[in-house]
Amino acid sequence: MNQLESEEEKKEEEKKVEEKKEEETKQEEKKVEEPKQEEKKEEEKKEEEKKEEEKKEEEKKEEEKKEEEKKEEEKKEEEKKEETPESKEEKIEKLMAKGGLKESQINTKFTCVTSETTPLSSIEDGKITIDSPLKVEASSIFSKSYTTYQVKLSEINSTVRRRFSDFDWLQQILNHLYLGNIIPILSKKNIGDRFSDEFLHTRIDDMTLFLQYIIQDPLLKSSQIVYDFFTIEKDSEFNSKKSTYDKTKKPTNLLQIKSLSGSEKSIVNPDCEAFITKIKFNSDFMISLLNNICDKYDGICEAMKTITNNMKEIAEFYENISKNEFGLPKDIINAFKNLDNHTKDWNELLKNQSNLLSKSRTYLKFLRRELTSIREFYQKVELQKANYYKAEEKLQVKKQSLFDKKETSMSRWEIKMDKNVDQNRLKTDKEYAFMKMLPKDTESVYQSKLIYGYYIYRIIIQFKMIRGHMGKTILELFNEYFNKQKGLLETFNKGILDNCSFFEETLKNYNVYESLSTDVKIE
Q1: What is the number of other CB atoms lying within 10 angstroms of the CB of residue 29?
Q2: Mapping DSSP to helix (H, G, I), strand (E, B) and coil, where does residue 1 land?
Q3: Distance between CA atoms of 434 and 402, rounded to whole angstroms?
Q4: For residue 361, how many C-alpha atoms fall within 13 Å in the half-sphere facing its CB?
Q5: DSSP per residue over 72-127, as a string?
Q6: CA 97, CA 21: separation in Å to the nearest integer?
Q7: Could you tell me if 474 and 299 are in contact, meaning their C-beta atoms sit under 8 angstroms apart?
Q8: Phi and psi (nearest 5°) for 83?
Q9: What region does 263 belong to: left with phi over 0, alpha with psi -120 to 50, or beta?
C-alpha cells in the first residue's frame, strides 16, 4: 500500500517537473518573441510616419502649384489690362502658338480683287437661244469643215455666230481664271456624222445648257470674257480677244482671285468639313445612278430610231399601194391612203418623242458632268487640306526644335527684338515663344489654311447653286416635254378619230359583189 502511494507521489512529482519545464520554455519563447513584436511595431510606426511626411510633402507641392497658377493668372490678367487690341497678325500668332491652326477654326473674310461689271451683271433670268447651224466647208486640204451656230441672249441686242471650239475655249479660260468656281465641261464625244440633224440637235442642247449655267452664276456672268463671247460679232476681233485672254496669268494667291464685293470668305470647322464629305458621297452616288440611267436612255433612243425607220418603210409601202392601185377598188385605195397618212403622223409623233427623250438624255449627261466637276473640285479641296496639314506639322516641329535648343538657337528664331518682345519670357514661356518665332513661316501656314477654308466655302456655295440650277432645269425640261406631248397627242388623236369615222363609214357602204363588177368582164 505504502509502495503504491509512493509511486503515485513520484509520478505526480515528475508531472510537476515537466509542467515547470514547459512553463520555463514558454517564458523563454516569450522573451525571444517580445523584441520581435517590438521591432515590428517600431517598423509600422516608422512607415506610418513616412506616409504622413509624404502626404504633407504632396500637400505642400499642391499648395505651391496652386499658388503658381494663381500668380500666373494674375500676371495674365495684368497683361490683358495693359495690352492694346490685338492686330490680325497677333491673333494669327496666338492661334499658331496654341497647338497649331489644325485644332482651331476659321470663319473670316479677306480682301481680294473686285470683279468687273458688264450689262450682263444685272440680268436675272436670261434666255439662251442657239440655232441655225451652218456648215462651213474646209478652205484647204489641210483644214476641216466645221459648223457655226447662231447664239443669242434674250436680254441683249446682239446675235453672234460661234463654233464648238469657241464654247470649249470659254470653258477652259473660265476654269483657268476663276479658281473658286465649278465650270462643267462640254461633251466632246463625236459618234457618226457630226453634220447630221441628230448630232447637231444634241450639240445645240448641250451648249445651251452650258451657257445657261454660266449666266446663272453671279460672278461668271459679270466677267468681261463672257460678255465678249455674247457680243463681239466679227470672228477676227473675237479671235484677237481670245489671244489676249489666253495670256492672262492664273491667280496664285487669295489676293488675286475675283469676287463681286472685293472680299471673300474662308471657313473651316467640323460641320463644314463633314458637309463637303457628304457632297462628295452624294455626287458619287448620283453619278453612279446617272451612268445607269444614261445607258438606258441610250438604249431607248436607239430603239426609237429603229422603230421610226421601220415606220417610214411601212408608210412608203402604203403609199406605193395607194399610188399604183394594183386594180383595187376605190374604197380600198382610199383606205391605204388613210393608212399611209396615219402611219406618217404616227412616225412623226414617234420622232418628236424621240427628240424629247434625246433632249432629256442630253440634260442628264450634262448633269453627270456637273457632278463630276464637283467631285474634281472636292479633290482640289482635299489636296489643299493635305498641303496645309503638311506645312503646319513641319512648322510645329521646327519651332519645337528651336525652342529645345534655345540657348544656342535664338538667333534663328527670326524675331525682331523691340520693346514689344519680352526676351526673358521667350526662354521660359513656350506658348509665347511659339507665338513670336518664325513670323514669315507662320503667316505662310496661315495663308495655306485660308486657301483651304476658301475652297470649302466655295464648294458649298457652288453645290447649292448647281442644286438650284438642276431643279429649275428639270422643271423647265419636263414642262416642255409634257406640253409638246400634249400637242402631239391631240393632233395624233384627232387623226385616229377621223380614221375611225372613215373606216366605219366605208365598211358600212362597202359591197363585195359590187366591187367585183368593176373587174374585167368574163361572160
Answers
A1: 10
A2: coil
A3: 10
A4: 22
A5: HHHHHHHHHHHSPPPPHHHHHHHHHHTT-GGGS-EEEEEE-EEPP--GGGG-SS--
A6: 85
A7: no
A8: -75, 155
A9: beta
For residue 489, what is its C-alpha cell?
A: 397627242
Q: What is the CA radius of gyration of the chain?
A: 47
Q: Is the pLDDT of residue 50 over 90?
A: no
Question: Which stretch of 141-145, 169-173, 297-301 has the lowest confidence by average pLDDT?
Answer: 141-145
- What cell was used for 425? 519670357
CB 186 within 8 A of CB 207: yes
Q: What is the SS3 string spanning 23-67?
A: HHHHHHHHHHHHHHHHHHHHHHHHHHHHHHHHHHHHHHHHHHHHH
Buried b (16+ CB within 10 A) or exposed e, 320-330: ebbeeeeebbe
Q: What is the 3-state secondary structure (H, E, C) of 161-198?
A: EEEHHHHHHHHHHHHHHCCCCCCCCCCCCCCCCCCCHH
- Cβ atoms of 221 and 122 within 8 Å: the answer is no
Nearest-CA neighbor of 187 among 202, 175, 172? 202
Residue recorded with cell 464654247: 167
For the packed helices 235-246 and 164-177, what is the interaxial angle rounded to 10 degrees?
A: 30
Quote the DSSP letter at residue 329.
Answer: -
- On whether the CB atoms of residues 333 and 400 are closer than 8 A, the answer is no
In DSSP notation, 407-426 reads HHHGGGS----STT--HHHH
Nearest to 384 by CA among 459, 282, 434: 459
Which residues make beta-bridge pairs with 258?
Answer: 113
Measured torsion, CA atoms of residues 203, 205, 210, 215, in degrees rounded to the nearest 10: 140
The letter for the amino acid at 418 is: D
CA distance linking residue 449 with residue 446, whole number of Å: 5
Higher per-residue confidence, 37 vs 147: 147
In one-letter notation, the amino acid at residue 513 is Y
Q: What is the pTM of this model?
A: 0.69
Which residues is 162 bridged to in the sheet? 149
Torsion angles phi and psi, residue 55, rounded to 5: -60, -45
* Residue at 382: amino acid letter: E
Q: What is the four-CA torsion angle of 451, 173, 477, 465, rounded to 10 degrees?
A: 20
Between these two residues, 422 and 225, which has the higher pLDDT value?
225
pLDDT band for position 234 (cuts 50, 70, 90) = very high
Residue 190: predicted pLDDT: 65
Work out the widest C-alpha separation in the chain, in whole angstroms: 188
Name the DSSP class of 220: G
Query: Which residue type does 177 have?
Result: L
**Other CB atoms within 10 A of residue 207 CB:** 23
Record the cell numbers describing residue 441, joined without a space.
513661316
- Angle at Cα 206 formed by Cα 204 and Cα 210, nearest 5°? 115
Instruction: Give the C-alpha separation, 351 to 192, whole Å.
Output: 19
